[in-house]
Amino acid sequence: MLPSFAYVRPTTLKAAVAALAAPGTRAHAGGTDLLGCLRDRVFPADTLVSLAGLPELVGVTPTAEGGLRLGAMTTVATVAGHPDIAARYRALAEAAAAVASPQLRNQGTLGGNLCQRPRCWYFRGDFHCARKGGGKCFAVDGENRYHCVFGGETCFIVHPSDTAPALVALDALVRLAGAGGSRVVPLEKFFVPPSADFTRETVLEPGEVLTEVVVPAPPAGARSTYRKVRARGAWDFALAGAAVSLGIEGGRVKHARVVLSGAAPIPWRVPAAEQALIGHRLDGATIARAADAAVAGAEPLADNAYKVPLLRCAVEEALTALNS
Amino acid sequence: MTSHLEPVPGPLGGRHPRIDAAAKVTGSTRYVADLALPGMLHAALATATVASARVLGVDTAAARAHADVVAVLTAADVPANSIGVIFGDQPLLVTDRVRMVGDRFALVAARTAEAAWTAARLVGASLEELPGVFDPVAAVADDAPLVNGASNVFRTFHVQRGDTAKQAKRAAVVVEAEYRVGGQDHAYLEPQGCLAIPEGRERITIVASCQCPFYIQQGVASVLGLPLAAVRVEQAPTGGGFGGKEDYPTEPAACAALLAWHTGHPVRLIYPRELDLQATTKRHAMVVRHRWGADRAGRLRFAEVETFMDAGAYVGLSTVVAERANVSAIGPYHVGAVRVATHVVYTNNLFGGAFRGFGAPQVTWAAEATMDKLATRLGMDPVELRRVNVLDDTRRTICTGQRLRTPVLAREVLDRAVELAGWDGFRAAPPAADGAWRHGMGVSLVLYGCNLHWGGQRLDRSSAVVILQADGSVVVRVGLTEMGQGNLTACQTVAAAALGVDPSQVQVWQPDTTTVADSGPTVASRGSLMSGRAILDAVRRLRVRLDPVAAELLGCRPGEVELAGGFARVAGSPERAVAMQAVAKEMSARRIETIATGWHRTKARRFDPATGQGAPYEFYAMACHVARVAVDPGLGIVRVEEVTAAHDVGRVLHRDALEGQIHGGVVQGMGWGVSEELRLDRGRLVNPNFTDYVIPTSADAPRITIALVESDSEAGPCGAKGIGEPSFIPTAAAVRNAVCDALGVEVDTLPLTPPRLVEALGERHPFAWVVEAATRPATEHEPATVGPRA
Questions:
Q1: Strand, helix or coil at B709?
Q2: DSSP per-residue letters across B379-397
Q3: Higher pLDDT, B527 or A260
Q4: B672, B676, B770, B780: best mutation site toward chain A, by most A Cβ within 10 Å?
Q5: Does residue B135 lie within any of the structural domains?
Q6: pLDDT at site B524
């Protein structure tokens, strides 16, 4: 049952940031994850600060440097259907289209998709796990079918977002607004792995709001894609997935980003796979080498080793798709 | 206006609008959560989150002190603290032992639902955790912790026919296998809910989302110590049941009734979805062991089946489920010798209960997997092997020794499904791989006994009331329920056909235990059959009074009156007719009784439970599904592209409702076979929500092609047979066989999720070597304890 909370809807970013500085507040964007978390008592909130009164956080506009600025309150559906995104940042368009269901894409926002809380049935369920301040990770010796195979260490969540791995592959930056102004952080550095701090998933400080995502101009010969593996035809989180962004010039890969989803507590960038691509023709042998490198060092739990071949297959399928 | 001389097609087999469709689609149907009464309180349950413990004490002080709380009850407040539907092995509220997650410590009534559920969390139970057992095979071991009583094997059911050892000598190939066929949640749209309305301490009304108002009546009367006549149960419009509202709703009803009894207020109890998933009955998980053999020609010589049924902590309906499982265990095949043993086993898992198919789907899945394995070993086409063994009019004795009534249509449904699905063409030239996708086709048959098993014969009767109104319209009451399956519409169709009126003239109302006699449960695909036969009986009795009046108006003898097209008319002279309205008006004017009751009971049968020999069911329905799938072996993804469903239905009552049942059965069966998985951590469900418990969406539904094999049978009203369960049972098995065909591996566990298929492929997965090469083994992980363990 959804607990009671106060609801405020500031009309300036400054007021929103000020409201969010108070303890017990949470930013409310689309609410598709937040309200479920409150209902399931994953965390409490006394006051929800709606961002819906800030029209400047909505929309997709070109930047002076040839990239795109995407307001954090832009819906996932808008991102999925935007012609410029489809044409120049295909991985992002594909990832946004693979999110949840049409209803949730219409309601959910890009910023919210990046800031959603992790998938783990112990974290989401009525278990007092380490991430919620309890003493242990229940997944280690419990039901860990869908938990991470990279970067777990103390907490074996998987990052739930589809847009995040795509945006990391596209070298996106995020702007975080706070009381003292704003700062810009590479999206890759926005996410906090459990090894650094298992009580948080992002670098957002209390009173900070993610206001926009900026994707830089694509590299020369750019092509990108996102491959999501899921059991159900709609409304299902990634079992495994791969976002790949390449720049190919003169028949050779000059720029490469390989980012796994459904694999780790954060979008899992694999530099070794990128190195296996750079400088080579994108042929079958190169793809196989990169796909092998993408899963090297995986650390499966008792019940999720299947993710390793699945991830390898997803990387190979994504790279093969870019080869046509 | 239609002339009475024009031929009027009767409603049977038609597609007139379903009685409840418009209200449900437009949202005007009022479900129990929509009902509120002045002074009504809200109930909540305090439940266990561990599966096995000794209860040292229950502290309700904090819950009682919470704002807006009116009452908190524990076991000491229950007049008769036992709720098991057949056996008394389950308390309504626990006293000394917790046996499963979801066991109730206390009931709370409060002025708001928020207060009630918040207070329920404040109930403190002091527990000493005990070892539990979470696997039905492990539970049978001598040293397994005891769950409930002196043995974890509650009972074993047998079928013994012929000498399997002797027949085994004639087998050229033998398949031995162990299948693990998991549980399933009903995933009805509307969670459990009820409203209890006390009238002093004399009597009480329960309005409930349920399949079986008479079960609730008995359960509430027993818990409160009231006569049956003092408990009235009205079925609320019910948003799906699938068996999940057969036995289980008695529990919430007894909880709400108890709180209403103590507080004197109406009390409403609506389950949150998480609790509904966690605490209610499930399809039984089963471990099915097979040893089957066939001779070189493919003839089945013997079949040995041993099944361990995970009953969970309470027996509930498990014994009856086992009885049905036994009859379906070898399918509609002729087998030289049969030995079946099904053990009903206690564990500390969630408890099993009724679910569409009732034990038959699990054993059918196993039987059809073994048939495919035999075909592979014999080098035969799977359909050809089935043709060699399938029952038909010339060979119609099932494993219980019962000779079936003709026509026996197992061969016909097989032939129709196979032809429609294009089996031969597919086998001759399977489609080439389409990118990563590989294609496969699989087949499954089912032998389904309609109505209740011999063991439930005493319940197998049904009551109806038909009232002819003064304007010629008709009220029908029956004792069996509508839960979305179409029973109201089926009853309307039967009554309209029997009275010769348009279906729009007939209103069938939801059951209420004060309007009809105990009709047993709405289960076992018996709703239309049993209600319909009772309606026909009621109409027959009504006509004893109606026909003489009509005859007088028509100037003929009562024996010459026939009812058709909205008229009473003279048989053989349709021009001599009088409108039913006129007949009704005349009966009313003369103060002739226009209400009639009807009754139907199934034929008594002989059966020997020791050997499983005899006539467990009155009649049978056959079905065959063929599934065509595409599988991505690298990613383990299954796409069910088409299911062809051929069903032996007798005669069609209402075509839309029938097809709807088949569509629903196929999709639900596919979900069970492919994606739905109850993940239990020491008896606790870790995925009690529809994000993590993956039911199919419309994006996953296959194309469904239906073939109805009709025949005249003496089965149900107007020749109908049940469809609710046979539509579900074969799908998952057909999908399994199709996936195995596509991949060239044998998968002996469901559901066929990507993880399971990758694991089943093992070394044959395109990147199997990656697991070894890329990873360090899981055993190197230390449990990640950070700080003191909670």
A1: strand
A2: T--HHHHHHHHB-BTTB-B
A3: A260
A4: B770
A5: no
A6: 85
Q: How far is A175 from chain B (nearest CA, A)?
A: 31
Range of the domain at B505: 461-601
- Angle of helix B655-674 versus helix B360-378 axis, rounded to 10: 70
pLDDT tens readout for residues B235-255: 999 999 999 999 999 999 999
Backbone φ and ψ of A319, nearest 5°: -65, -40
Interface A–B counts its CB contacts (< 8 A) at 155
How far apart (Å, rounded) are the C-alpha atoms in residues A310 and A299? 14
What kind and span of H or E run contains B248? none
Q: Which tokens sit at B220?
A: 């509430």
Which chain A residue lies closest to B631 (C-alpha atoms)? A231
Tokens of B779: 């055993």
Question: For residue B720, which phi and psi values (nearest 5 degrees)?
Answer: -75, 150
Q: Which two tokens stand for residue A31?
A: 């609410």
Reference B511, options B464, B558, B568, B553; nearest CA is: B464
Least confident of A171-175, A198-202, A232-236, B25-29: A232-236
CATH class of A222-322: alpha beta
pLDDT confidence of B715, banded at 50, 70, 90? confident
Distance between CA A22 and CA B507 in Å, rounded? 60
Q: Do A137 and B753 touch (CB under 8 A)?
A: no
Strands of B618-697, DSSP E: 620-632, 637-650, 680-681, 684-685
The dihedral built from the CA positions of residue B544, B548, B553 and B555, taken in this order, carries a sign that is positive
* Structural domain total, chain B: 3
Amino acid letter at B605? Answer: R
Q: Tell me if residue B324 is catalytic.
A: yes
The string over B503-513, giving b where at least 16 C-beta atoms fall within 10 Å of a residue's C-beta and e elsewhere, is bebbbbbbbbb
B737 and B642 within one domain: yes
Q: Are residues B364 and B311 in the same domain?
A: yes
Whether B725 is catalytic: yes
Domain CATH for B698 = 3.30.365.10
Rounded to 5 degrees, what are φ and ψ at B575? -70, -20
pTM (two decimals): 0.95
Closest residue, chain B, to A123 (C-alpha)? B686
Buried b (16+ CB within 10 A) or exposed e, A235-258: bbbbbbbbbbbbbbeeeebebbbb
Chain A: residue whose CA lies nearest to B764: A309
B396 is a domain residue: no
What fold is seen in the domain A55-116+157-215? 3.30.465
**Nearest C-alpha of chain A: how many angstroms from B636?**
8
Out of B263, B279, B295, pick the residue that ends a domain.
B279
pLDDT at B784 over 60: no
Read off the pLDDT of residues B282-296 as tens digits, 9 standing for 90 and up: 999 999 999 999 999
Q: Are B540 and B466 in contact (CB under 8 A)?
A: no
Region A180-185 average pLDDT: 96
Inter-axis angle of helices B527-554 and B580-589, nearest 10: 80
CA distance linking residue B338 with residue B163, whole number of Å: 8
Residue with tokens 């469900």: B685
Give the count of alpha carbons within 13 A of B240, CB side only: 12
Q: What are the boundaries of each domain within chain A? A: 55-116+157-215, 222-322
pLDDT in tens, B58-103: 999 999 999 999 999 999 999 999 998 899 899 999 999 999 999 9
pLDDT of residue B717: 87
Comparing B473 with A231, which gets the higher pLDDT? B473
Give the containing element (helix H, strand E) for B104.
Answer: strand B104-110
Tell me, yes or no, whether B680 and B707 share the same domain: yes
| Rounded Cα–Cα distance for residues B483 and B213 (Å) | 12
At residue B91, φ and ψ (nearest 5 deg) are -80, 150
